[in-house]
Specification:
InterPro entries: DAP_epimerase_DapF. The protein folds into 2 domains: 147 residues, Diaminopimelate Epimerase, Chain A, domain 1; 146 residues, Roll (Diaminopimelate Epimerase, Chain A, domain 1). With 326 residues, it is α+β, with helices and mostly antiparallel strands. The protein has 9 helices and 19 strands. The chain is 22% helix and 36% strand. The chain is globular and about 55 Å long. The strands form 2 sheets. The protein has a 17-stranded mixed β-sheet that branches. The two termini are 13 Å apart.
Length: 326
């Protein structure tokens, strides 16, 4: 019923709306109505598709067998509507790895045109977010370029409140008090919006990056959840709608190492939009130039293309690849 795919260690289930309805989930007829009514059906869909089968959950694994659920397509030809459901039942505005997986699934279903297509992610935080996807091959690997548009920077871009100013590498950044209270080295952050909100904390030592195992353990897990998740799961501080968290270190020229704690999910092996936000933040503080940037995460390395014009970033593209899990 639900097929699972892996994109650099980020795992999503893909299921059609018709399949969910046949299983007894009361899913509305179109993606817009699904998004506005998600509280009525999303947790049941996650339980049905993403819970571990009885007795099959591996030791020390995450509470669900995937990082989320992709519901779609709602059409047989482009543009394609899709819902990205986090395992806590909330809806995401965008997921780079999720849209890569969805594009791969569309290709397997012979629905993805050779010239690519536009994907429309419906959510309950505003208008549907559009992403243009184009099949491509990079270094012999088949995948997709995702056009994520122009990034925005700063506290206002993500709705952050009560933020202090700081400086890093001679550039203006933000001081996020709740993060610095968890670890005093987490005192320089850059807010980025790439359709969804991100807070990239900039570090100077790769050994200072938190591991996914550390981020799953108490009390760090609870502290990060309070920051990343909106109420009632978290506290939405400093972003009432929640924010995705990343930590980044410059490893070498045009190469950044990162860790990710996602709003609505927690620590993940990789994230496409998080990698894109990290690349943008690195450009903002002078760590990298425009052009190709590689962001290294536990699940793999994401190639990002940054386009600059007159000293401003005007475009971000992410290359993603996925595979069906056995």
């Amino acid at each position: 019923m639900t097929q699972f795919y892996d994109a650099r260690g980020n795992i999503y289930g893909v299921v059609s709306p018709a399949t969910l309805r046949e299983a007894g989930i009361d899913l509305p007829a179109n993606a817009t109505e699904c998004a506005s009514s998600r509280k009525a059906w999303s947790k049941a869909a996650i339980a049905l598709c993403c819970d571990w089968p009885e007795g099959q959950r591996p030791p020390n694994s995450k509470s669900h067998r995937s990082d989320g659920l992709l519901i779609g397509p709602f059409q047989n030809s482009p543009p394609f509507d899709v819902l990205i459901v986090n395992t806590d039942g909330t809806l995401a505005e965008r997921s780079g790895n999720g849209l890569t997986i969805f594009s791969h699934a569309l290709t397997e279903q012979a629905l993805m045109p050779e010239q690519g297509a536009r994907l429309s992610v419906h959510h309950d935080k505003g208008v549907a977010l559009q992403t243009s996807v184009k099949p491509a091959k990079v270094e012999g690997v088949n995948g997709f370029w995702l056009d994520l548009g122009q990034p925005e920077f700063g506290a206002d871009a993500v709705g952050a409140q009560n933020i202090e100013s700081g400086e890093f590498n001679g550039r203006a950044v933000s001081h996020v008090k709740p993060l610095a209270q968890l670890d005093p080295t987490w005192n320089h952050s850059q807010f980025v919006r790439i359709g969804n909100p991100h807070c990239v904390t900039l570090l100077t030592d790769v050994d200072a990056l938190p591991s996914n195992e550390q981020m799953r353990e108490s009390p760090l897990s609870e502290g990060l959840t309070r920051i990343a998740y909106a109420m009632p799961t978290g506290e939405g501080d400093p972003c009432p709608a929640g924010v995705n968290l990343q930590w980044a270190v410059r490893e070498s020229e045009q190469r950044i190492v990162a860790r990710v704690f996602e709003r609505g999910e927690g620590p993940t092996a990789s994230s496409g939009t998080s990698a894109s936000a990290v690349a943008c933040a690195a450009w903002r503080v002078g760590w990298v130039d425009a052009g190709e940037v590689h962001v290294v995460m536990p699940g793999g390395t994401a190639p990002i293309l940054l386009e600059e014009e007159h000293g401003e970033l005007i475009g971000v593209r992410l290359f993603g690849t996925a595979q069906l899990m056995g």
